[in-house]
Design a protein that fits this description.
The protein is an alpha+beta fold. It contains 5 helices and 12 strands.
Length: 229
C-alpha cells in the first residue's frame, strides 16, 4: 500500500504523441466540433458551460500563454473527472489500459482530467485504487498516508474524505504563510508527513486507496485516472 511512480509508463500509448497536438483536438475536425460540459469553477460555485472541444483547447492555450492568474481552482474552465472516453469512443484507440487495473477484479472507472495550467484538486482521499496516467503536460502531486488524516483537517459533515484546508491551494497557502498565521486553525498541517513529485508526460502513478492527495497542474495537462477496487 505504497505509491509507486512508473517513469515513462505510458509513453507507448498513441495518445502520448497525438494528444499533445492542438491540431488533433481543434480545427475543423469532427473531434474539435464535439460539445463538452466544462466545469467553470466549483470552488466559486460556478456551474458548467457547454463548449466545443476546439474552443476549450483554445482556452487552455490562452491560459498557458498568459501571466494572469485566474480566480478559483479551475483555471477558468476544466474537464475534471470527465468520461470523455465514453463520450468520444474513438479516443479509446489512443490508450492502453494498464494491466495493474486488472488486479482487483472489480469495476474499472476511467476519468479524464483535461485543463489549463494552475488547475487545483484540493487534498482528499478516494475509496478505490488509482492508476494515474499523465499523458500531456506536468502536474505537481503531494501525497499523504492515511495516518496523517487528522493533520489534514477532514470535513466534519459532507464530503468527509475532503480536507477543509483554506486556502485549498496548498502551494499558495504555504507561500503566503496562511497556515502559520496566528489566527490559522490549520497549524498542524505543516507537521504532516508527505511525499511529493512532479509527473511528466508519459509517467504513471499507482496511488493506493485511502492516501490523501493534492494535485496542481503546472502546464496545460491531460491526465487519465483508472479507478478500480
Amino acid at each position: 500500500q505504497t505509491p509507486i511512480i512508473f517513469r515513462g509508463g505510458c509513453t507507448h500509448w498513441p495518445a502520448y504523441k497525438r494528444w499533445n497536438s492542438q491540431a488533433y483536438w481543434g480545427g475543423s475536425s469532427c473531434l474539435g466540433q464535439r460539445w463538452v460540459a466544462v466545469e467553470m469553477d466549483y470552488w466559486l460555485d460556478q456551474g458548467f458551460e457547454l463548449m466545443q472541444l476546439r474552443d476549450f483547447v483554445s482556452h487552455c492555450s490562452h491560459v498557458e500563454a498568459s501571466d494572469d492568474k485566474k480566480a478559483g481552482l479551475s483555471g477558468g474552465g476544466y474537464l475534471a473527472q470527465c468520461a470523455l472516453l465514453d463520450q468520444i469512443p474513438e479516443l479509446q484507440d489512443d490508450i492502453v489500459m494498464p494491466d495493474y487495473c486488472l488486479c482487483g477484479g472489480g469495476t474499472i472507472l476511467r476519468q479524464m482530467f483535461f485543463g489549463p495550467k494552475c488547475t487545483v484538486t484540493p487534498a482528499h482521499w478516494d475509496p478505490y485504487e488509482n492508476i494515474f496516467c499523465q499523458v500531456v503536460g506536468y502536474k505537481y502531486l503531494r501525497l499523504f498516508p492515511p495516518s496523517e488524516a487528522a493533520k489534514l483537517y477532514p470535513r466534519k459533515e459532507n464530503l468527509q474524505n475532503n480536507s477543509s484546508l483554506d486556502p485549498a491551494d496548498i502551494l499558495e497557502g504555504e507561500r503566503d504563510g496562511a497556515y502559520t498565521a496566528e489566527q490559522s486553525p490549520f497549524k498542524r498541517f505543516l507537521e504532516a508527513e508527505f511525499v511529493d513529485m512532479v509527473l511528466e508526460p508519459g509517467d504513471m502513478l499507482y496511488l493506493p486507496k485511502g492516501w490523501w492527495h493534492f494535485v496542481k497542474s503546472l502546464s496545460t495537462s491531460i491526465s487519465l485516472a483508472f479507478h478500480f477496487t
